[in-house]
Amino acid sequence: MAIFHLHMQTVKRSEGRSATAAAAYRAGVEIVDTRTGEVHDYTHRSGVIGTLAVLPNGGTVDDRSQLWNAAELAENRKNSVVAREVVVALPHELTDADRAVLTERFARWLADRHGVAVDAAIHAPDKAGDNRNHHAHLLMTTRQVERSPEGVQLGAKTRELDHAKTGGEHITEWRAQWEREINHVLELRQQPDRVSAAPVLGVPRVHLGPAASQIERRGGRTPAGDHNRAVDALRLEIHVLRADVAELDRQIAAAEREAARPTVTPTLRVGGGSMALAALKERSATAMPPPALDLSVLDAPPAPRPEVVQEKPKPAPSPATPAQPVTLANMPPEALKLVAGKLDAQIHALRQKLPDPETVAWQDERVAKLMQQAAEAEKQREKQRKDREQAQRQANAWRDAHKLQAKAHDAGLKRSPYLDQMADLADRCQQAARRLAEEMEHLKRQAAELVKSIADRVRRQQQPDRAQLDKLTKARADVVKELTTRRDRELVQKAREQDKQRGRDGPGLGR
């Protein structure tokens, strides 16, 4: 069962935290904090499935270290908020590739929505925890960003997220968008589950935090963990109950359609002809599904009533009056249920013929080829990034072992061939990574444009059938409304009769 979870927290300097340390840990890399000189090395941590740092308008970050050092240097107060982090649960029903696409779509939406940089990292489930707990961390700058020749430049603060009122409204907006993104991918992959951003019975899950998470990973229990387990159990129970209700609805609908099969009787007549008798003859003639219902029958005048030979003579009839047209208002309940059943069958058949246009587009071979090329470019870009970081680590290690030579190199007194070689390698890797990032974005734009073109073509092809589907859906809604109105009238009439009966019987106990 897919679980919805989205939690936002801030990275505050007053709590001893930093944006550089948070980014290094989430991405599993090494970042040197130029403000404090601290080295945050998490290159040996496991569980990082993939990372991507994005900018507004489809851009990507070439140097994660430069971005988060700039974020730290932009704040000068000891209690500054240096980053915001959004933690989301990823559906375990999807593949790693689908989860990567889902995370990137949401990261880019956040970047475009607030004009910030978003550094996304997908983590695998903890080995000692629930193996379905795929999740992503999205680290956001607290300032708007723009690209310049020197790198990423930070600008104005995102004050709308700081304010108590507007901040909550934006988080509600994030939750709604994340719900749409998840359900969109689940639908594309034909997964039956859907998620909802609405808390279960008003009780959301809570964030564990570093301390509680560590206790839970070691097999311990915490109040927050117990709360989340209770909410998850309740969600699972509601999910099962909803499935049971859906199955009961299906059985009831089938039973009602079976009950709507009329018997051959001369008393069930609509206007001048027997719709029930005609329907029974249609079903007995063939075992195929019922033929398409001609909705014009609801407005057409009835067929002339056949003459009936009377056993006893009767007075001469009065002059004939025009037959009353067959409408929903004067159709018997059995006939209305029969019409609803036929409409259900036609609607179901039409929907089977109308797959989602975007699903068709994403399954196109040309789109799949472009996405495969983009994935390969991303793989090569990640390799260049790691090679660059390795060159920087080797240069730093040499500096530690040859401090005097390093100072002479930096002062220009005597260049170190080894440091020059490592610097040249790091520069070439960075340039290659930038080219690959541009190629990856170009391929993804091509795929998106092709998807839009294919989806638009499919929609045009489906337009006549969708118009017919809308017509049938409206007709069924009218039938259901008429049945509901009649049922309500019957309930009101029954209540009135009960009131009259109680009035005739007089007062009860205590008289």
From TrEMBL:
Keyword entries, A-Z: Coiled coil, Conjugation, Plasmid
Presence of keyword Cell membrane: no
A Pfam family matched in the record: MobA_MobL
Coiled coil: 231-258
Gene3D superfamilies reported in the protein's UniProt record: 3.30.930.30
The UniProt record lists the keyword Coiled coil: yes
Domain MobA/MobL protein: 17-218
Annotated spans, Disordered: 290-324, 372-401, 482-511
Biased composition, class Basic and acidic residues, residue ranges: 376-391, 482-505
NCBIfam families tied to this protein: MobQ
Name of the protein: MobA/MobL protein domain-containing protein
Organism, scientific name: uncultured prokaryote
